[in-house]
Amino acid sequence: MANFQTALALYFTIVTAYVVAAFVAGDRLTRLQLHIVNSCFAIAAGIVGSLTVLIFARFYSYARQASVPDGAPLIDFRWPLGLLVLAVFVGCLVFMWSIRNNTKGHA
C-alpha cells in the first residue's frame, strides 16, 4: 500500500508541475517547446500513472488473498482508479490547449 501511495503522490506531482507550467508559460511556448513539454509530460505521466494502477492492482490481489479478521468488505476500485488517472491526464492536456488558445481580454 505504501508503494501505491508513493506512486499516486508522484503522479499528482507530475500532473501539478505540468499544470503550473501550462498556466505560467503555456501561451509563450514555441511549437518546439510545446512538443517537448507535452512529450515529457505524456511519457512521465503515462509511466507513473500506469505503475500507480498496476501497483494498486497487485495490492488488491494480495489483500483479496489475505483473510480479513473483522469481515470488512474489500472494495475494488482498480477501474475507477484507472479512469481517474486517464481523466486527469486528458484534463491536463485540455488545460494546456485552453491556455494556448485563450484570447486575451475574454474571460
Note down, in words, how this protein is organized.
The structure is a single chain. By secondary structure, the protein is mainly α. 77% of the residues lie in helices and 0% in strands. The chain contains 3 helices and no strands. It has helices spanning 2-25, 31-65, 78-100. α1 packs antiparallel against α2, α1 (2-25) packs parallel to α3 and α2 runs antiparallel to α3. The longest helix has 35 residues, at 31-65. The model has no long low-confidence stretch (mean pLDDT 89).
Descriptive tags:
elongated, single chain, mainly alpha, 77% helix
Give a topology summary.
Layout (H helix, E strand, L loop, with lengths): L1 H24 L5 H35 L12 H23 L7
Helix pairs in contact: 1-2, 1-3, 2-3
Major sheet description: none
Number of strands: 0
Helix proportion range: over 70%
Structural class: mainly alpha
Give the strand content. Answer: under 5%
Kindly provide the radius of gyration, computed on alpha-carbon positions and rounded to a whole number of angstroms.
18 Å
Number of domains: 1
Sequence of secondary-structure elements: HHH
Low-confidence runs:
none
pLDDT averaged over residues: 89
**Count, helices:** 3
Query: How many angstroms does the end-to-end distance come to?
Result: 43 Å
Report the principal-axis shape: elongated
Quick summary:
77% of the residues lie in helices and 0% in strands.
